């Protein structure tokens, strides 16, 4: 893929509804909707919401409800799950929930499916006691949802889901999911925005083992990146300190509310370049338009990406929107 042809690459957004310090949850959810509306205006292809539990800094735990909220407040942008952690749920319930969404918002709903818990093991056990068995059944449970849609499940029906247009996507952060996506002939979404280690190998496995299906003729790759863009490199570095503090919280298992940005200092620079932090944020692109453009071109070219799934964790809503505006101009070829 030519590095000067980003216009051929679709760009989408992953939303966690991150709760900032001193920002009440109702405001967080309103901000999510405003962000989706702005993303739609800026030409983003999809707006996906992630499922997480028992995390006070993330408000997207009831993912299907938020998807309905976002879809109801937008007009054309695709809205979906990035993803539903399927072992947490019965396939029938997911078929009914997303079948309902697809009936309400025709040709706009996506179902991204992952097998990770989206939480700690204790909480995962609380969500579904037979979760580990469901993990091993992940490929079969994907098929079961499709069977409800196709009305091929003999024992039980999900009438609300029958015949709906609901594209499936397989999410993953390891090589296991690559085999699943390839065998089923489904688009593959890799969580390189926080788990970049296996990206290259997972994409190789997916492409080499891909089997064409009624859903997809050839491999389609969506890859996650973090973006913090600003008019100047210095401002972007400052804004990125909120994301940096979140990363440290995740790695130390002391995740708290997203913190307001602070000027980048020597201590934060040391943290930023710590091997564990640097590895987790390998695909965190921070800077002005020229810097971000170069980073994205290199990423897209190196890994032959069809679509970017962008996470933008910026504390102030106004600055977050600004970051998305800069990104959209880059992707549309409106920057030098």
CATH homologous superfamily designation: Luciferase-like domain
Q: Main beta sheet, described?
A: 8 strands, parallel, barrel
Straight-line distance between termini: 19 Å
- What is the chain-wise order of helices and strands? EHEHEHEHHHEHEHEHHHEHEH
CATH-defined architecture: Alpha-Beta Barrel
Mean pLDDT: 93
Q: Provide the helix percentage.
A: 40-55%
DSSP summary: helix tally: 13
What is the CATH class name?
A: Alpha Beta
Strand order of the largest sheet: 1-2-3-4-5-6-7-9
Helix/strand-derived category reads alpha/beta
The amount of beta strand, in percent, is 5-15%
Quaternary: single chain
**Radius of gyration over C-alpha positions, nearest whole angstrom:** 19 Å
Shape field: globular
Question: Per CATH, what is the topology?
Answer: TIM Barrel
According to DSSP, the number of beta strands is 9
Number of domains: 1
Poorly predicted residue ranges:
none
GO molecular function: oxidoreductase activity, acting on paired donors, with incorporation or reduction of molecular oxygen
Family: To bacterial alkanal monooxygenase alpha and beta chains.
GO cellular component, one term: cytosol
Protein name: Luciferase-like monooxygenase
Can you tell me about this structure?
To bacterial alkanal monooxygenase alpha and beta chains. With 336 residues, the protein is of the alpha/beta class. Helices cover 44% and strands 15% of the residues. The protein has a single domain, classed as TIM Barrel (Alpha-Beta Barrel), CATH 3.20.20. Strands 1-2-3-4-5-6-7-9 form an 8-stranded parallel barrel, surrounded by 8 helices. Helix 1 runs parallel beside helix 13 (317-331), helix 3 (91-104) packs across helix 6 and helix 7 (176-184) packs parallel to helix 8 (199-209). The longest helix has 19 residues, at 233-251. The radius of gyration is 19 Å and the shape is globular.
């Amino acid at each position: 893929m030519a590095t000067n042809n980003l216009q051929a690459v679709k760009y989408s957004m992953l939303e966690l509804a991150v709760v900032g310090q001193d920002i009440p949850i109702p405001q967080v959810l309103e901000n999510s909707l405003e962000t989706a509306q702005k993303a739609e205006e800026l030409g983003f292809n999809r707006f996906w919401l992630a499922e997480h539990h028992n995390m006070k800094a993330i408000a997207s735990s009831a993912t299907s409800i938020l998807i309905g909220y976002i879809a109801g407040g937008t007009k054309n942008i695709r809205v979906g799950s990035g993803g539903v952690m399927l072992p947490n749920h019965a396939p029938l319930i997911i078929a009914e929930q997303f079948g309902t969404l697809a009936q309400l918002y025709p040709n706009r709903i996506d179902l991204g499916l992952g097998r990770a818990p989206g939480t700690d093991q204790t909480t995962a056990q609380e969500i579904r006691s037979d979760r580990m068995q469901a993990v091993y059944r992940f490929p079969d449970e994907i098929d079961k949802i499709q069977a409800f849609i196709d009305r091929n499940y003999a024992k039980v029906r999900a009438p609300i889901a029958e015949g709906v247009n609901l594209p499936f996507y397989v999410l993953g952060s390891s090589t296991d999911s690559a085999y699943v996506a390839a065998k089923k002939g489904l688009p593959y979404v890799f969580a390189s925005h926080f788990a970049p280690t296996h990206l290259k190998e997972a994409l190789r496995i997916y492409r080499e083992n891909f089997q064409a299906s009624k859903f997809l003729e050839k491999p389609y790759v969506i890859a996650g990146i973090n973006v913090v863009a600003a008019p100047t490199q210095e401002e972007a570095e400052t804004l990125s300190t909120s994301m940096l503090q979140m990363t440290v919280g995740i790695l130390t298992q002391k995740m708290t509310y997203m913190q307001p940005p602070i000027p980048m200092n020597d201590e934060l620079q040391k943290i930023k370049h710590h091997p564990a932090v640097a590895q987790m944020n390998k695909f965190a692109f921070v800077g002005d338009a020229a810097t971000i453009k170069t980073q994205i071109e290199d990423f897209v070219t190196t890994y032959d990406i069809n679509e970017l799934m962008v996470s933008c964790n910026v504390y102030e809503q106004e600055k977050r929107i600004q970051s998305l505006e800069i990104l959209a101009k880059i992707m549309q070829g409106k920057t030098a």
